[in-house]
Every structure is written in structure tokens, then in C-alpha cells.
Amino acid sequence: MSGRFETTFEVDRTVEAVFDHLVDGRDDPQSSPRVQRIERLPDTPTAVGTVFRGTVKDAGTRTAREFRITELQAPARIRWAEVSRNSVTADEGGYEPEPVGDGRTRVHLSDVLEGHGIGRLLVGLAVAAARKDAPAFGERIKAAAETAVAPR
Fold it and tell me: For tag attachment on the chain, is the N or C end more exposed, with fewer CB atoms within 10 Å?
């Protein structure tokens, strides 16, 4: 079983600046309290094949997570797939930023969560929680991006 969650939000920064912030990936702990640490491998500019490795805490349990960038089209598309094997994984996901005028950017975020083993029983709960949090998650990403990126 799998399920999708998504959200769309606007950031008061240019699409290029928002893309640059999102593609770095190492600022994820600022927008997701679940992410405890994250690193980019190799530590070079993000490209297709780059892996982000980190530790995430869900429901009191820490798990190791690895995401590989599968598609990159600056400044319009960032896609990833989780390559780690946990009970619930984000098998595909990504950002699609687009300019909306006046130096603002609309960002669409989506993720498909997939259950594995015992996770097949848990994925429905994970998707429901992610859908419930999606608007707030978008707002946290917006706040992190606006803090990290100076206005032009």
C-alpha cells in the first residue's frame, strides 16, 4: 500500500533563489523537526545521483534515511527517491518551484509514501499524518527559505 501527500505554498523570493535553497538539502532540519541531521554526498553541488543521508525521528524512533536525486531541472524541478529501506519510505517525491511574479515563487511539494513489511500496516497512518501536517510543513519550508535567502 502507498499514499501521496502534497502541498503548495508561496515564498517571497525569486524562483532561482528558492530553487538554490531547496536543492542544497542540508537546511532540511530548519523546516522539518523530524530531521535530526543530514549530509550531502558527495559534498559538491547537488546533481542527479547526489545522495542526502540523515537521521530522522518518527514516533520516538530514530531511523537512518538516504535519498537520491533522480531528476534536476533548474529552476523548475527537483525529484528524489528514498534508497534506504525502512518500514515506511518516500519512494518518490519532489519540489516544483515556479515564478508567480513580483519576485515570488509558488512551490509544489509531493511525496509518495510506501509501506514495506510491517510498514504496510503503518503507511496509512503515516500518510494521514503527513497530509494533516502538509500545510504547516509548507509554511516551515517557506519560513526557512525566506530566512536563508536575502530578498532582492
Answer: C
Cβ proximity of 48 and 71 under 8 Å = yes
Distances (CA, A) of 108 to 51, 94, 120, 134: 21, 8, 26, 11
- For residue 37, what are the contacts with CB-CB under 8 A and spacing of at least 6? 29, 54, 55
pTM of the entire predicted model: 0.91
CA distance linking residue 133 with residue 114, whole number of Å: 18
Asked whether 57 and 38 are in contact (CB, 8 A), the reply is no
C-alpha cell at 98: 515556479
CA count, 13 A, side-chain hemisphere, 51: 10
Pull the grid cell for residue 129. 499524518
> How many beta carbons lie within 10 A of that of residue 56, not counting itself?
20
Dmax over CA atoms of the chain, in Å, equals 48
CB 123 within 8 A of CB 113: yes
Q: Helix, strand, or coil here: 4?
A: strand
| Nine-digit cell string for 132 | 494533516
pLDDT digits (tens, 9 = 90+) for 29-51: 888 888 899 999 999 999 999 99
